[in-house]
Write a structure and sequence with these properties.
The chain is mainly alpha-helical and 621 residues long. The chain has two domains: 377 residues, no CATH class; 133 residues. The protein is 61% helix and 5% strand. Strands 1-2-4-3 form a four-stranded mixed beta sheet, with helices on both faces. A hairpin with a 2-residue loop joins strand 3 and strand 4. Helix 7 packs across helix 8, helix 8 packs parallel to helix 10 and helix 8 packs antiparallel against helix 15. The N terminus is likely disordered.
């Protein structure tokens, strides 16, 4: 007997579910991928950070035109290791590729989008696997709403990359995964830590601390294959370094960035450099409230997971110990050694990615009672988002230091974590209603995120004159404007500064030095003069009159070209007349404009020092 014919296609009951799961995964992946863009507009993240030091634009020149620096200044900079900015290939290679592919300002934002993904994607996956999708989204919001992270991403200083690399690596190392997928996560973590190492000196500190903590956790929790995995991590780091060296050769023009990095580290360890950058008096810290955030988060983390060590899940244990280890090492280097790890906000910012990750884990642990309550599980996410939005509505935070306001606010996360521990213990016997659980969790989330945000954005109070402070003091960071700040003028000036190397043009021979001359008391010139290394390549404060010090500098450096810069042409003609003893020849002039940014520039050849080849090149052009 023949069986009845089957239809060409009969979907089983599992196929619609599979289809829904695929669509759900697609929407989820798209949401995470677009989260930096969504966060940019929802949180009104400041697109760029205000210029406070020339250091970021000293890196911009390597992004825009690295050959100018290597050809012009390799010899002149050698005694003082000032080419160290060009050795930070972990950041510069990616930034240079973004510039080549998209241009100055678009490339800047493409690079920041990549850095944001490097941070938020592993953090999202980690919190999702530990607590669920809402917790993963909360981790994204915590990272994208951090004023420290936003400010770091807003400049070309390499801390922008170190933050993302390190938080991504820590999340990858903590990731709960099947054994067959572990090598992939280890390889990704090792690659990110290697990029952090070759981006900035603080990346070395963070990478070493992270791997020490990881090794100890594995030693006491999971020794199986520890040696094999350690060798694998080292092998990936070596391979990543070699690939980066090859990329640096073709993208930046320098294959060996390890040697210049070691030379720079040795120079910065000299007593003269230490006095200039590191304060021997620790009391300056009492006036910097945002430094209370890491210890507050670490203690709150310890309170949230206070139990027998063996009962703490390994991923949470590793994140907490990594955060504590990194901050502890930074504190030792600052107060027990001679490195300005916490004193310089460009340095201290590098630990903030892991601090944000630890804060997200604490918030997720506190919210555990409502993660399984359907729509209510999204309440913590909504409140974590609401806190920075409320701050943007009225961004007025008074200046305060550690005592008493700072100490009180730093105590709030600890007390909140303690209250939630006690409430959770009480709830196991009294079965509180869903409304009571939601209210308790909501109040605690708001209190913790609000207190840490206030500590972060608080301006520094007036600091008394203290002995033993660094000669080159760190300016106050602009964390208070990171949310809701306007960066239109900053973007305009970035575009103008990125156009300056093209106006100057490529040097015609190796060692053809260019120096600058301008009014030093014009703050808006801080970024443009940083393009060609500010003070080291500039004449003194007498513009447009040559001082004896200027003549000595010219005689010593013998620059072939002099670049006159100003917001107006004021003093340019007088400067050209005063340069007559050096045979000045005005090559070309320009007015670089973009939006509200206007920069006047004159390029002058000094025949007394320039080789004939530069005259021929000028005549032909």
């Amino acid at each position: 007997m023949l069986s009845p014919p089957r239809r060409p296609f009969e979907p089983t009951s599992a196929e619609p579910e599979l289809s829904r799961a695929r669509w759900s995964l697609l929407v989820e992946s798209l949401g995470v991928a677009l989260s930096p863009v969504i966060g940019f507009f929802v949180l009104r993240m400041q697109a760029m950070a205000p210029v406070q030091l020339p250091d970021p634009s000293m890196h911009t020149i390597y992004v825009v035109d690295p050959s100018q620096m290597f050809v012009r200044y390799a010899t002149a900079f050698a005694p003082t290791a000032r080419m160290r900015e060009g050795a930070q290939a972990g950041f510069l290679v990616l930034a240079r590729l973004a510039y080549l592919g998209f241009g100055a300002v678009p490339g800047f934002f493409v690079m920041r989008y990549v850095l944001a993904l490097i941070a938020v994607v592993p953090a999202y996956l980690l919190l999702k696997r530990l607590y669920g999708i809402p917790a993963g989204v909360m981790a994204i919001v915590v990272l994208l709403s951090s004023p420290v992270v936003i400010t770091a991403w807003g400049t070309d200083y390499p801390d922008c990359a170190v933050i993302s690399y390190v938080v991504g690596a820590v999340a990858c190392l903590a990731m709960p995964t099947r054994e067959r997928w572990r090598p992939a996560w280890l390889a990704l973590a090792s690659t990110l830590l290697t990029l952090a190492v070759w981006s900035h000196g603080m990346g070395v500190v963070l990478a070493v601390t992270t791997m020490v903590v990881y090794g100890l956790v594995r030693l006491f929790r999971e020794r199986r294959r520890l040696v094999l995995h350690s060798l694998f991590l080292a092998g990936v780091a070596a391979a990543a370094t070699f690939v980066l060296m090859v990329a640096s050769r073709f993208v930046l023009g320098q294959f060996d960035f390890i040697g210049p990095t070691l030379i720079a580290a040795a120079l910065l360890s000299t007593s003269a450099q230490i006095v200039q950058w590191h304060s021997s008096n620790w009391r300056w810290a009492l006036y910097v409230a945002y430094l209370l955030v890491p210890p507050a988060v670490i203690v709150a983390f310890a309170v949230s997971f206070a139990r027998r060590l063996r009962s703490i899940p390994t991923p949470q244990l590793f994140v907490g110990l990594a955060c504590a280890g990194q901050f502890g090492f930074f504190a030792y280097l600052q107060f027990g050694y001679h490195v300005q790890t916490l004193e310089m906000h460009f340095f201290s910012s590098t630990i903030w990615g892991v601090v944000c990750l630890a804060l997200a884990v604490v918030l997720a642990e506190m919210s555990r009672p409502i993660w399984s309550q359907g729509v209510a599980s999204w309440l913590p996410v909504a409140l974590v988002l609401a806190v920075p939005l409320a701050y943007e509505a009225d961004p007025k935070t008074p200046a305060f230091g550690w005592w008493p306001v700072g100490a009180v606010l730093a105590l709030v996360p600890v007390l909140v974590a303690l209250v939630m521990r006690l409430f959770a213990r009480w709830g196991r016997t009294h079965a509180p209603s869903r409304v009571a659980l939601a209210c308790a969790v909501g109040l605690c989330v708001v209190a913790m995120t609000g207190s840490t945000l206030e500590l972060t954005v608080a301006p520094r109070p007036s600091t008394p004159v203290l002995k033993g402070l660094a000669l080159a003091g760190d300016p106050e960071p602009s964390y208070s404007t990171a949310l809701g700040g306007n960066a239109t003028e900053l973007v305009d000036w970035y575009q103008v500064c990125a156009s300056l190397p093209e106006f100057v043009g490529d040097p015609t021979y190796h060692g053809e030095q260019l120096m600058m001359w301008f009014f030093w008391d014009v703050p808006l010139l801080l970024e443009p003069v940083g393009i060609f290394h500010e003070g080291f390549n500039s004449l003194g404060f007498g513009f447009p009159v040559l001082t004896p010090g200027d003549r000595e500098v010219l005689a010593t450096r013998r620059p072939a070209e002099l670049l006159l810069l100003g917001l107006k042409r004021q003093g340019f003609e007088a400067a050209l007349k005063n340069l007559r003893p050096y045979g000045p020849e005005l090559v070309r002039t320009t007015v670089l404009r973009h939006g509200s940014a206007v920069l006047h520039a004159w390029l002058v050849i000094l025949r007394a020092f320039a080789r004939p080849s530069i005259w021929l090149a000028t005549a032909s052009s």
